[in-house]
Amino acid sequence: MNYYKILEVDKDASPEVIEKAYKALVKKYHPDLQESNMRQNAEERIKLINEAYEVLSNPISKAKYDETLSKTELSEEDFDRLSKENKNLHDEINNLKYHSNVNYNNTQQNSYQQVDLQNEYEKQLKYENELQQARQKAYHDAYIQDLKNRGYKIKYKKSPKDYLKNILALLITIGILFILWHIPFIHDFFMNTFNNNPIFKAIMNFFN
Length: 208
Fold this sequence. Notes:
Elements: H1 3-7, H2 15-28, H3 39-56, H4 59-72, H5 76-149, H6 160-181, H7 184-195, H8 198-207
Helix pairs in contact: 2-3
């Protein structure tokens, strides 16, 4: 990585020139000043610019870097070739990311559409079932009413559950009457009524 090329200065550039170039590049590639699709590239460029300036602005680190660069420096043609390959690779990665996001969004949208269709199908099925039940009940009621109009007596077969309900209702009624009978003013009221009733007297005399 050639920090001089990143800052767009010569190897013999003075500290003032390096600082001036650094400020100009930071302003030029500031992410907030870029288009939305170029902000990521600008952020990566700014990182390289900061890294290069941090090394070249310090005399000690700059001297070490110059020594290392002299031993490993590539030719300008090789550097340009590698830079172009790196840029192409970076563009391909961004392109893959973009298409991955598009495919993911399309998949999500299709999933939402399938869920909506499933909900609509379930609602329609529920409506049809309710309509069928209402139809059957209407036919049944009409048939029973027609039989009654012809003079037939309709007897419904009682299930064990129906008998249980009747017994339970009878027990509850007896329990309520038992409680009422033991309320003093109610007990006295009925006793006075029965005692003043000739029929009740005749019945009591018969049993006595």
